[in-house]
């Protein structure tokens, strides 16, 4: 096994050196070593890819579709995305010039941020929020402006947004993620409209991460791109809607001039997406509108179950309106350090969850439980948590 030459030990990107690895993944790796652990930690759908979608991928391989696609993605897939966005959100994006197919929504986020931000720029991020945003922003040299939403029912209010924009004149981009990971909160049309009325007054982009838009329970999803198409980069994909996380197909839609710049970064990073995955995604978007609804019915039942059980055990929970997470406040009689509590829960109850502080300051004192797990695992996990709380609750946990 080769060891790095000492003379190369300091040869590394300094920004990357200063960015910590994903705390969520690191914690998940730790709890994964515990025997008999039930993991309700990562955002991984437990449903199978629909059969007609799998067959499309197989047909692509059999047909020897093995050469580079267009860098922005295959034209049939971009056309499917365009038609899907028009059908679902009444949005009009040109398949040739305003859509890019990416390696998951993750690459769409990365390509966008590296394309639009410069050192010293500022980015407003409501917290708690998807943790990946933070290291990518740091790597661009821009600065993160966290807006704690824990006191406003975990939604970004117009007042909080206005204050952040006034106090941070170097803001170039606002990140919205809804339904939100980790809270499951969805924004209503009225809430989106109120935010858009503020944003349109400023020279800022909105990166609208709508990857969970098909997994909503109580109200239809309303994209901010319907109100501010000229300022929005809409990001989504098929990972959550069609349980295709391993296929790694996401996409972004934005004005032509913006897409031109993002496409350069995208091409430098990945060249082009995988053909068989694109064929599968094309089928999912063209003929799979009913597929997410089947998952929604399953997730709604699980949401109701896990929220009821956690409330009975003594956790306060945010009512999820989308995605597949419950964000739960640690009971007051326990140590409010969510890292320590989550580790204790994993060691003693053999239930893995995600500490809330990994999602930004607004998540401290909370735990994220994913209910993208079997009914049997969810039932057993709740029983274990209940036993843990009953046993530990009578002790002092200052």
UniProtKB/TrEMBL annotation:
UniProt keywords (A-Z) are: Aminotransferase, Pyridoxal phosphate, Transferase
Residue ranges annotated for the Aminotransferase class I/classII large domain, each copy included: 36-385
Q: What is its EC number?
A: 2.6.1.-
Which CDD domains does the annotation name? AAT_like
Molecular function as annotated in GO:
pyridoxal phosphate binding; transaminase activity
> Which InterPro entries does the entry link to?
Aminotransferase_I/II_large, AspAT/PAT-like, NHTrfase_class1_PyrdxlP-BS, PyrdxlP-dep_Trfase, PyrdxlP-dep_Trfase_major, PyrdxlP-dep_Trfase_small
Return the similarity comment. Belongs to the class-I pyridoxal-phosphate-dependent aminotransferase family.
> According to the UniProt record, what class of enzyme is this?
transferase
- Cofactors: pyridoxal 5'-phosphate
List the GO biological process terms. amino acid metabolic process
Where in the sequence is the signal peptide annotated?
A: none
- Organism in which the protein naturally occurs: Bombilactobacillus mellifer
Protein name in the entry: Aminotransferase
A Pfam family it matches: Aminotran_1_2
